[in-house]
Amino acid sequence: MRSDDMDAVFSALGHASRRRMLDIVKDRPGCSVADVCAFFDFSRIAVMKHLRVLEDAQLLHSEKEGRVRRLYFNAVPIQMIHDRWTSEYSALWASRLTELKYRIEGRGKGKAKATRARRAKRRPPK
Asked: First vs last Cα of the chain: how many Å apart?
């Protein structure tokens, strides 16, 4: 994903009304612009400007059906951003958590005695 595309997605998601519009479209696939307008107190033109920003960021897909424009949510840009930053870190933390899990489980099966013995050797005699 290009930097400009990511900027468009972040910019589109940066406005609370646009996030709400995405939620509406996600919950009602194929809804019309008029359906979305019913949820807001501002003008149809203002709603359409917000929808245009979402469409330019590829978060919405619209299909014209006669005089009605049907709206559909597109999660791909959000998923691409998620994958860019989480895949490397997810693998890193998953391996560290697995290592921690094995250490904790290992102590419960006999390694605890060895750990206590090492600690006792480090303590100065009384």
From this structure: 65
Tell me, yes or no, whether 106 and 117 share the same domain: yes
Q: Is 68 helix (H, G, I), strand (E, B) or coil?
A: strand
Shared domain for 65 and 9, answered yes or no, is: yes
Distance (Å, rounded) from C-alpha 58 to C-alpha 125?
70
3-class secondary-structure state, position 114? helix
Number of domains in the chain: 2
Digit-by-digit pLDDT tens for the chain (126 residues) are: 788 888 999 999 999 999 999 999 999 999 999 999 999 999 999 999 999 999 999 999 999 999 999 999 999 999 998 888 776 777 778 788 888 989 998 865 555 455 555 555 655 555
Centre a 10 Å sphere on the Cβ of residue 89 and count the other Cβ atoms it contains. 9
Query: How far, CA to CA in Å, does 52 sit from each of 40, 116, 124?
Result: 16, 65, 73
| Domain ranges, residue 50 | 3-74
Amino acid letter, 86: T
Both 108 and 125 in one domain: the answer is yes
